[in-house]
Design a protein that fits this description.
single chain; alpha/beta; Rossmann fold; seven-stranded parallel sheet; five-stranded parallel sheet; 8 helices; about 35% helix; about 25% strand; elongated; binds flavin-adenine dinucleotide
């Protein structure tokens, strides 16, 4: 069986936590298929020492470094041309990308050019004796696990991993990887786009579609004091803030943070709707959330029909108590952790 590739950007080799699960899937898959596990790092001014250390620690057989000034910043064209050039000379059977917004478009376009199967957001890869490569993903809100078998005999299989990659924990066996630098040709004649710039964005306007937890406020949050409760709650939960159009009309959120038919469609693990009635225009944007909790003082509010947990309460009464309980929980668990650390010493 041909090699299994994991594609990385320069900075990813230092993102130990992010990479550990991806590496474990790549290496387990390679082992089951009797293939070599190879990581391919794209970037400029790559440190071969750092890449070597990463590949050595994670247990890759080799690492291919593609160092080119055009790869300093992400530009889909550049990544796609780079990979297509490599794939003229190399023939991996599986190309795996870690979960990252960049990689969705790169993977899809590389697969299209190769006329290869492309699977997005799969959390597990396993090898079945009869069916070959099986990809799995769990749709929690539907309590379903989807499995697909893909054929890698005539084309490479292109896979983008999901955020919740699973699979068995593997014991890392470090290897002495082969490090190889490869040149690719990228210039203005070949690529049709160029990097223009990166702007720092207000944290609250960062893509809500990526958020795991969203705290959203609505027309019921009608004072700045009420809105600061939303902000404190979001801070305690590490959540992003959003709202209904009513919150936007009160200037509590930007247009980017409106959820609904004329705003964002979001699907977080948890959507907490506070003082939101649940009219259709809003529901369209959030009803596919895995879990919905709502707080509303009117028990007839339509939002209750969509929530797994509905709290009939005045937000000005309920939120300060909820926040206090969360803070106490956090303090207690910090204290326990400190006590445990003392016991160990
Ligand atoms: C073309 C068009 C497009 C639209 N697009 C969108 C869209 O994309 N997204 C969107 O959200 N809206 C959209 N709207 C607006 C939408 O129709 C509603 O007006 C809006 O969603 C209402 O927001 P709300 O439920 O937060 O506020 P309200 O309708 O004002 O409801 C407030 C809720 O808070 C509760 N409440 C009040 N006080 C308290 C309290 N102290 N404690 C607890 N609960 C309290 C009330 O019982 C009520 O249920 C659109 C409208 C149009 C016409």
């Amino acid at each position: 069986m041909d090699d299994i590739w994991l594609i990385l950007e320069k900075d990813m080799t230092s993102q130990i936590k992010l990479m550990a699960r991806a590496s474990s899937l790549v290496i387990e898959t390679a082992k089951s298929l009797g293939s070599k596990a190879i990581c391919v790092v794209l970037g400029s001014n790559l440190s071969s020492d750092e890449c070597y250390r990463f590949a050595n620690k994670e247990g890759y057989d080799s690492v291919l470094l593609i160092d080119n000034p055009y790869l300093t910043n992400y530009c889909a064209d550049h990544y796609i041309f780079t990979l297509l050039q490599l794939l003229r000379d190399y023939h991996p059977s599986v190309i795996i990308f870690p979960s990252h917004p960049h990689f969705q478009e790169v993977a899809a376009q590389v697969a299209e050019q190769l006329q290869a199967p492309c699977a997005l957001n799969y959390d597990n890869i396993r090898i079945s004796k009869d069916r070959g490569i099986i990809l799995e993903k769990v749709i929690t809100r539907r309590q379903e696990q989807i499995s697909v078998a893909v054929d890698s005999t005539s084309h490479p299989v292109v896979i983008v991993l999901g955020k919740d990659i699973g699979g068995p924990n593997y014991s890392v066996i470090s290897k002495v990887p082969l490090v190889k630098s490869l040149a690719v040709e990228l210039n203005g004649y070949l690529v049709h786009s160029r990097f223009v710039g990166v702007e720092k964005m207000d944290i609250e306007s960062i893509d809500l579609s990526e958020a795991e937890i969203i705290v959203a406020g609505g027309g019921g949050v009608n004072t700045p004091e009420g809105w600061s409760l939303i902000q404190v709650l979001a801070g305690e939960l590490g959540a992003k803030i959003a709202g209904s159009r009513a919150a936007f009309m009160r200037n509590f959120i930007t247009e980017n943070q409106i959820v609904g038919i004329s705003g964002k469609v979001v699907s977080p693990r948890l959507y907490i709707a506070i003082g939101i009635s649940g009219c259709n225009e809003h529901l369209i944007g959030m009803r596919t959330s895995e879990s919905i909790i709502c707080v509303n003082k009117e028990k007839s509010a339509p939002i209750f029909r969509y929530a797994q947990l509905g709290i009939v309460a005045d937000l000005y009464f309920f939120l300060p108590r909820l926040i206090k309980s969360l803070q106490e929980l956090k303090d207690n668990s910090n204290r326990d952790r400190k006590d445990n650390a003392k016991d160990i010493h």
